[in-house]
Amino acid sequence: MQREQEFLDRVYDRVDTLRGLAERRVKDALIPVGTGMQARLERDVLVAERAGVLAALNAVDGSLCFGRIDLQDGSAHHIGRIGIREDDADHTPVLIDWRAPVARPFYLATGHTPLGLRRRRHITTEGRTVTELHDEILDLGDRERSGFEDPSGDAVLLASLNSARTGRMSDIVRTIQAEQDRVIRADHHGVLVVEGGPGTGKTAVALHRAAFLLYEQRELLAKRAVLVVGPNAAFLRYIGEVLPALGETGVLLATQAELFPGVHARGTDTPRAAAVKGDAGMAEVLAMALRDRQALPEPGAPVIIRHDDGDLILDWEIAYEARQAARDTLLPHNIARPYFVFHAVDALTAQLAERLGADPYGGPNFLGPDDIAQLGKAVAANEEVHAALAELWPPLSPQRFLADYLAEPVYLPDEDAEAVRRARGAGEWTPADVPLLDEAAELLGTDDSAERAAAEAERQERIAYAQGVLAVSQGSESYEFEDEESEVLAAHDIIDAERMAERQEEADHRSAAERAAADRTWAFGHIIVDEAQELSPMAWRLLMRRSPTRSLTLVGDPAQTSEEAGVGSWDAILEPYVGDRFSQVRLGVNYRTPAEVMDLAARVVRAQDPAFEPPASVRSTGVAPWTRESGADLAGAVERAVAELTPAEGRLAVIAPDALHEEIAARLDGVTAGAEPDLTRAVVLLGPRGAKGLEFDHVLVVEPGRFGTSDLYVALTRATQRLGIVHREELPASLR
Ligand SMILES: Nc1ncnc2c1ncn2[C@@H]1O[C@H](COP(=O)(O)OP(=O)(O)OP(=O)(O)O)[C@@H](O)[C@H]1O
């Protein structure tokens, strides 16, 4: 213990020095250097990197070092959350980053395959103090003993699994199991599917994989960022501290609702509406609806446009020809629109020229090319022409187009159309709208010509300003002294106006993740999707656009699928994008739910699928789950059960059908219905969907007869210790 403490003191001394250094280096990096795009980009990356180092040093302070491996060759390494090196000529490693290849035997070695290890030591600390050691002897021939031997090898794991929950997920870096380690360190190329039942550590593994990839592919991912997609905001908050605790901040966590920058999708859909909106056929439906927005005047009923040189007649033929020319470009709607306008203006000009220059005696037209060009300019400048053309081929934003479509949904069976119909201006965007907005944005194309023109105008303004500055400095021409060496330089000698203008531009110190959050077309370096079974085919289209390299990790459990829009099999999800070129692994051990609770949960699924095999629980508590009939006063029975089950330390979740929340919340102190739950409170009230991915020490399930099979399976598997069930209505047969 003493020696480990001395070691730790040395490491923390070094950390404190490094932190001081990092603080100074962040400040230095902020000083503007060089000019030009490249220099600025490099500086911004440097600032982000150095700020990242500082954040990492600050974040990992609490439990920096957690392990040690002693090798058969007599050497030893300490393993920590981040790597620390000595300040010597060789930069000797003091603490090995858990993600480094050298650290790998810490996770994989067994007595059977010791991978060159003699001993594995788990070091437990509180703050900067060593409090416990647990040693596993891996070389049975080795007689040396420390007195801290842990013959079972899982004391640290079990202590962590049994510890009281806090409402925030913690990292598992000290106790990653071998099957999990293989997933975390799998190659980042291509698509990896990680399947596993409740509590098998899928979420934990996905997050540690993000940390691993950020370490291994630091250069690529610092620029392109990692996206982690989770099922809802409460879940993202629940997992939000894991990566920072591992020293990683370059990750964007988002729900589907947040994947269209500028839109906050806070509305809700009926399950039916969400399923219709998520169906793959919606891509074609929207494309067809958009073609309908490229309209023509009725044949025989042309649009008459007033014009100084005589009325212009915008008829079916002119509009048809112009539309065809624009469609032939195969460009998205907004980008093809100028072609439509150009062809229509051209045809209207020709019409006018023919009328004005016509020779009454049938000779050639009087007007020369210059006259016609003049006429064309006047037609193009006529506001009414543009208004008429905008009626036929309107410039559209994704929001406007989708709102219009939902107000009058076409190309859908009547029932589906009714399910998604929403009056213009009514209600908010919903998560299921987000992939449709993204699809619309693709079909429409971004017409950013106005923004580009504005940016260029701004740049010209800066250059003009800089020229002004230089003109003033010109007044003090460089004086040529006889002695050439002593020439005095003026500002304009060393800097031209353009470079000076660039210098004035605001530096963009946002990290790649922050930039990515604001950019719909961002291509992420890697995307991790948790609860991937819930996403609809339309949502997959959106995510695949954000991952042109198809570097993805998908994590999920088909048995827990609750969304009607969710896709049934990984083959069905992935076939359109990568064919059958994806790898799949299964995690088979449940670290969360005790065996007693898992047995009950498995019965629920088996009632539907007799061949169902749940993951094996690593623990049992010896406490069986119980069911209790409430009599008439359901809320009263819940209140009493909550009083019994609320742990002295840790968290209790009441998982009840949404319709009962008001009634239940009224009886529970500090518990509210409807609002987004604060998971750090001792008692939390949730619906089965909101409980997805979360866990609590104790769980009370209310009125399980009203839950669908997969929702009930999710609800029952949230407990790390105890489970109770309260019901007034009849129990499902599987729970009786
Ligand atoms: N190797 C490990 N060491 C310590 N704790 C672990 C380990 N693996 C998993 N856990 C813990 O088990 C619990 C369940 O993990 P996690 O939430 O990642 O499972 P999951 O497979 O995503 O579950 P679900 O599908 O039910 O949401 C978490 O508390 C997690 O910290």
From TrEMBL:
UniProt KW keywords: ATP-binding, Helicase, Hydrolase, Nucleotide-binding
UniProt domain UvrD-like helicase ATP-binding: residue ranges: 175-594
Keyword ATP-binding found: yes
InterPro entries with a match to the protein in the record: DNA_helicase_UvrD/REP, P-loop_NTPase, UvrD-like_ATP-bd
Coiled-coil segments on the chain, per record: none
UniProt: ATP binding residues: G196, G197, P198, G199, T200, G201, K202, T203
Domain of life: Bacteria
PANTHER family, sorted: DNA 3'-5' HELICASE, UVRD / RECB / PCRA DNA HELICASE FAMILY MEMBER
Name of the protein this chain belongs to: AAA family ATPase
